[in-house]
Write a structure and sequence with these properties.
Layout: H1 17-41, H2 52-75, H3 80-95
Length: 99
C-alpha cells in the first residue's frame, strides 16, 4: 500500500506563521486562566499548581452535592398525572358520596 499525502509539498512537521501565533496565543490564554483560577482559590487554601488532585476532588464533591440537591428538589414535585389521579380519587369524598 502506498501512503497518500493531502497536499503536494506539505510537511506535517513544519508549522506556518499563523499556527505559531495560534499556539502562542493559546498558551498565553491557558496560563492566564490558570493564574486567575489560582487567585480565586487562594483564600480557600487551595492551589491548582500545588495540589491539582485536591482541587479536582473538592470541585467534584461540590458538583456532586449540587447535583444531588437539584435532584432532591425536582423529585419532590408531583407529576401532573399523579396530581390528576389524587384529585379524581378525592372527588367522591368532596361531593359527599362517601364519608
Amino acid at each position: 500500500m502506498t501512503q497518500q499525502s493531502g497536499r503536494y509539498g506539505y510537511k506535517p512537521n513544519e508549522r506556518n506563521g499563523t499556527s505559531e501565533q495560534v499556539v502562542d496565543k493559546t498558551k498565553e490564554l491557558a496560563e492566564e486562566a490558570l493564574e486567575r483560577a489560582d487567585e480565586w482559590l487562594k483564600p480557600t487554601g487551595l492551589s491548582i499548581r500545588e495540589r491539582p488532585m485536591t482541587v479536582l476532588a473538592v470541585v467534584g464533591g461540590l458538583a456532586f452535592a449540587a447535583g444531588a440537591f437539584w435532584m432532591l428538589k425536582n423529585s419532590r414535585q408531583q407529576s401532573r398525572y399523579d396530581e390528576l389521579v389524587a384529585t379524581l380519587t378525592d372527588l367522591p369524598r368532596r361531593a359527599g358520596w362517601r364519608s
